[in-house]
Predict the 3D structure of the following.
Amino acid sequence: MNDQLIKKNEFRKSTSEIIQSTRKHISAGLTGILASDKKEIVLSVGHVFQRLQAGKFLSGFLEEWNKYVEKGRVKDDYETTEQHAACLQELLSALDNDMPDEERFRLLKKIFLTSAMEPSDLSDRDSSLPLQFMQIGRSLSTGEILVLFAAYKINNEKESLPKHLMGRGECLKRLASKSGLQYIDLVRKQEDLLVEKNLFRSIEGYDGRNIRDDNYFRLTELGYRFCEFVNFYDKNQNE
């Protein structure tokens, strides 16, 4: 019985230990920069900020991960899976190479924790979908994330959509309001990028059909499934 408990604790510590080790590495890097001469410090300002942000993000993530483990929301052997290792590597690589802001890191965290909960109707531990979603998440800017999930929310509120045909202008106004970006020019920029990433459907693709009757408003099926995966975290975070 004791051996089983020890093994269980080792599994549960593995992810925490990796994150704690990464935090120590970040701290050591900051110490080294601060010990450099003034010229090197000036050149490293952006790098220092990136490491400070990374440390902050990791601290919050570690606390939430440990709560998930303590509540039994992560199966004891999940941390031994290839999916877990690949997604964790993607998360840490994003911090190291992408300099993500809080919105993008929050998105990656949600994908990671949803994967760890192994929702049977969305994916399983043998699926490559969580890693694909992590990679998509890494490619998104804050503006794209806001517009993407604004479309998802609008889609889930179809009763509030007009019955008449909507052109691009009206779609942009609704997305600007729901996303909080306010200006349709900001939304238009994100919209074009989301179309390129196959998460949004081009307005021309509707061929005059009523957007209100479309299955996913402006989202492609990939865009909708991506949002559904992330939304699983939002629906379950308070359990």
Observations:
- The chain has two domains: 2-139, 142-236.
- Residues 143 and 222 are 18 Å apart (CA to CA).
- The mean pLDDT is 80.
